[in-house]
Specification:
This protein is α/β, with parallel strands linked by helices. Among the domains are: 4-231, ANL, N-terminal domain (Rossmann fold); 418-514, GMP Synthetase, Chain A, domain 3. It contains 16 helices and 26 strands. The strands form six sheets. It has a nine-stranded mixed beta sheet, with helices on both faces. Strands 16, 17, 19, 20 and 21 form a five-stranded antiparallel beta sheet that branches. A four-stranded parallel beta sheet has the order 4-3-5-6. A hairpin with a 5-residue loop joins strand 20 and strand 21 (408-413).
Length: 518
């Protein structure tokens, strides 16, 4: 299905229901479709044709949702950019994608102007939220453009979005996603618009991330109201949930922890929350157990996927978060809370060895996926595409293993594995043990060069406020819980782990700062 139909259906079924709530704006589905049509006509007047790229540089806002659907109505391609990216990264992404139009928030206007001479293809700059001298203003464009509907000609397999990966090593890669990439998940896992069923999603994940794109598609198809937060801030998030009675949220582990640690957490009424989906980074067992206690009325879902898979491919459902039953049943569920669940029905997932063949149960290998929702490839990077998609299987770069019940447990990234004296050490396995120590708030494990062993295990830890520990204590704590060669042989204590916008620890930064030889 073409994703523009998600909006058309919702506008027909629940026209007067709020589609978007963003600060002072409250836009119904019917109004949203009208705004999208006017924007599509404005893009057409700019000379946008099928296949052209339209980029955005802005924190979360209603305009980005509108820009995606307007681009799709013209069979153009939407390119949301990371607003935290450096100038050289933005230049690369805009030139690599060949963007014809760039919509930017006023806070980024001077930044864009500073590197505009280096942009090779951008013909039109549009100011999103306030007037910028020399740029047409978004709302003025909508007010002066006709609202005739556009009907795309493209089919399900046509390109609809390019999402750039974080680019932690080398240049960012543009992940090519089709309409089918999104609709295959949505049509299988989301209930369509219903006049009798209302829902309200609070959206805080940045809209250049696949999790946010999936949330938008699901909400629009489901006729749910999207409550948009510019950027995550825990106090404001709680205010929005209380005021708008949001019943669905997508969080990353860091966000959940920040909420529960907030001094005013108990002052807000968050009882409307029915479903909290989390993912994008590993969830410490201590954090999810605490969240289950602190949000007693909510059902939790662990969703695992990546940009290249376009959406969730495995899920740990709400039932596995209910810590009830016999002591043996609870013990099993506690173990499963450290997993990423089981594959969804519309995608095939395997764990394979270096030869590409499935490994035995319990054996660590690379997680690979197959199905219609996978990316079309990397934009302008045929070699990288061929390395990632082999014989119809997408190699995720994530390592893991199946247990006897079909649950998958992550073992880290293939490139992060530590090779110590011929033994392979999973950083994530060591991190889970460290995070169970009562004095540790956060932990990350890296390999450091060593003449005798090739690499040794180093832990970088953040202690809880008021707590103390030593290298010897933590090493011994791990030794009695892991094979001896896996224990940290050196420990660095720091105030905070470096993370990206979605809470993933930046191992590259840790290796640069703390990866010197033992």
């Amino acid at each position: 299905m073409n994703t523009t139909e998600f909006l058309s259906i919702a506008s027909a079924v629940v026209p007067d229901r709020l589609a978007l709530v963003f600060e002072q704006k409250r836009i119904t589905f019917q109004e949203l479709e009208g705004r999208v049509n006017r924007l599509a006509n404005a893009f057409a007047e700019f000379g946008v044709e099928p296949g052209d790229r339209i980029a955005t540089l802005q924190v979360n806002s209603n305009e980005q949702v509108e820009a995606y659907f307007a681009a799709a109505k013209l069979d153009a391609v939407y390119v949301p950019l990371n607003f935290r990216a450096r100038a050289d990264e933005l230049i690369y992404m805009l030139n690599d994608s060949g963007a014809k139009v760039l919509l930017a928030g006023s806070r980024y206007a001077d930044h864009v102007r500073s590197f505009a001479p280096d942009l090779e293809t951008v013909e039109h700059f549009v100011a999103l939220d306030t007037h910028v001298e020399g740029w047409p203003f978004y709302e003025s464009i909508l007010a002066s453009t006709a609202g005739e509907d556009h009907f795309p000609d493209g089919d399900d397999d046509d390109l609809t979005a390019i999402l750039f990966t974080a680019g932690t090593t080398g240049e960012p890669k543009g992940v090519m996603l089709s309409h089918e990439s999104f609709s295959s998940y949505v049509l299988t896992n989301v209930t369509p618009s219903d006049p009798e069923e209302e829902g309200r999603n609070i959206l805080t994940v940045p809209l250049y991330h696949i999790a946010a794109m999936q949330a938008v598609m699901s909400a629009v198809y489901g006729g749910r109201t999207l409550v948009i937060q510019r950027q995550f801030e825990p106090g404001e998030w709680m205010q929005l949930v209380e005021r708008e009675r949001a019943n669905r949220a997508m969080m990353v582990p860091t966000m959940l922890k920040m909420l529960m640690d907030h001094p005013e957490f108990g002052r807000y009424d968050l009882s409307s929350l029915d479903v909290i989906t989390y993912g994008a980074a590993p969830m410490p067992l201590e954090v999810i157990r605490r969240a289950i206690e602190k949000f007693p009325g909510a059902r939790f879902i662990n969703a695992f996927g990546q940009t290249e898979t376009a959406a969730t491919i495995t899920m740990l459902p709400p039932d596995d978060h209910v810590l009830e039953g016999t002591s043996e049943e609870i013990e099993v569920k506690l173990k499963r809370l450290t997993s990423i669940g089981r594959p969804l029905e519309d995608v095939e997932v395997r764990i394979v060895g270096e030869d590409g063949h499935p490994v035995d149960q319990g054996e660590v290998g690379e997680i690979v996926a197959s199905g219609s929702r996978l990316m079309k490839g990397y934009w302008h990077q045929e070699a990288a595409t061929a390395e990632t998609i082999r014989n119809g299987w997408l190699y995720t770069g994530d390592l893991g293993y199946f247990d006897e019940d079909g649950y998958i447990y992550l073992a880290g990234r293939a490139k992060d594995f530590i090779k110590r004296g011929g033994e392979m050490v999973s950083p994530q396995e060591v991190e889970l043990v460290l995070q169970s120590h009562p004095a540790i708030d956060e932990a990350a494990v890296i390999g450091v060069p060593d003449v005798d062993w090739g690499e040794r295990v180093r832990a970088v830890v953040v202690l809880k406020e008021g707590q103390t520990s030593t290298e010897d204590e933590l090493s011994e704590y791990c030794r009695v819980r892991l094979s001896s060669f896996k224990k940290p042989e050196s420990v660095v204590f720091i105030d905070r782990l470096p993370r990206n916008a979605l809470g993933k620890v930046l191992k590259r930064v840790l290796r640069e700062e703390y990866g010197g030889p033992v």
